[in-house]
Specification:
mainly beta, two-stranded antiparallel sheet
């Protein structure tokens, strides 16, 4: 069954690429009309030094981006083809890097390299109502895999341990004044392209975004579903809320909190829970320089998302500070110091378990 799904996805991706290529050729012949097709590329190269000096070059297991120690590597590199008209849109992005290796480990074959593969149609001539189908970015969280779009250089614990991508059907509506956005989603699961074997449970999502002014964004997103085989079904409920506030021309802050609940066992009315607050403070003294500080906490006593096997579970604080330099309009150099402090000894240092971990990461981002 998996091989059939993989083969079908290969055909879909190749078909979309061929169709977009044909459209590009057609519009290239008509110089009077701008082409609806755009091609873009992105590369985020990094070096990270973990002061715990892991011999296997792997950062702590709950880190799913910039997760290799003492080696030059690619976190995320992709080539994307997009097609946009008034009524139709589509995206295909094929990617590689340590981010892809970590987050797509459960996907078979070529699907491990599919960052995006989706198509949408506008359902109304008068209203901004779209139906999108395929693999697209997650509706959960304030951060995404593309580093240049995020204030902090590395991703937060909350972002790394909630979906970056999802597969399914999304119905989205934007109000005429663009202050409100609403969407409902039917999904294959919690960060999934293919469902787990033995799972027939649909997952659902919702998103509401409100922008009362150019300086304020408020977002509420939810997920409900089961990410395990039906024989051990455990329903998961997750809510993400964040607010982005432009305090002045140079200062901005993001406040967020994630909360999740999952059944302790199939059919149980008792729940295991976790909570993830986040604070980001950004200062941009000039157009070329940006500084960001981050404070975060991940409380997962029962190990639903991050299993530590320790008496208090995974209860960890994280702090980071980064400096970004925009060298040119499409090249950014980023540097970050990040430290974790846990209630229990959850980090490996040499042959010992310790409660702290610190790393320095530098990256060069190129986008065109």
């Amino acid at each position: 069954m998996v091989l059939q799904i993989e083969a079908a996805m290969k055909r879909v991706v190749l078909l979309v690429i061929v169709l977009l290529g044909s459209i590009l050729n057609i519009h290239a012949q008509d110089e009077k009309k701008p082409s609806p097709v755009t091609i873009s590329a992105y590369a985020d190269l990094y070096y990270s030094y973990d002061f715990s000096k892991p011999t296997n070059h792997a950062r702590p297991s709950f880190i799913y981006s910039y997760n290799r120690h003492h080696e030059v590597n690619v976190n995320l590199g992709y080539v994307k083809v997009s097609y946009n008209t008034e009524r139709v849109r589509a995206n295909v992005a094929l990617a590689a890097g340590t981010y892809m290796n970590a987050n797509y480990a459960a996907e078979p074959g070529l699907l491990k390299n599919v960052l995006k593969a989706n198509a949408g149609i506008k359902l109304s001539k008068k209203s901004n109502l779209w139906l999108d189908v395929g693999v697209f970015g997650s509706h959960l969280g304030v951060e995404n895999p593309v580093g240049k779009d995020c204030w902090a250089m590395t991703r937060s614990m909350g972002a790394d341990n909630s979906p970056y991508f999802e597969t399914g059907v999304k119905l989205g509506y934007t109000s005429p004044n663009e202050q409100w956005f609403f969407s409902v989603l039917y999904l294959n699961g919690w960060q999934r392209i293919t469902r787990p074997d033995g799972n027939s449970t649909p997952a659902f999502g919702t998103q509401i975004t409100f922008k009362p002014s150019a300086n304020i964004t408020l977002n509420s997103s939810a997920f409900i579903g089961n990410d395990k085989p039906d024989s051990v079904k455990q329903m998961r409920y997750f809510h993400d809320f964040y607010g982005i506030f432009q305090l002045s021309k140079k200062w901005a802050t993001t406040l967020g909190i994630d909360a999740g609940w999952e059944q302790k066992s199939k059919g149980s009315s008792e729940m295991n829970s976790w909570i993830v607050p986040l604070v980001l403070l950004r200062y941009t003294p000039t157009a070329k320089v940006a500084l960001c500080g981050r404070a975060e906490y991940f409380g997962d006593e029962n190990g639903v998302i991050i299993a530590s096997g320790t008496p208090n579970g995974f209860k960890t604080w994280g702090f980071s500070a980064n400096v970004d330099l925009n060298i040119t309009s499409n090249v950014m150099w980023r540097n970050e110091v990040r430290t974790f402090s846990s209630m229990d000894d959850v980090f490996m240092k040499g042959n010992n378990m310790v409660s702290n971990n610190t790393a320095f990461t530098t990256s060069m981002v190129v986008a065109f």
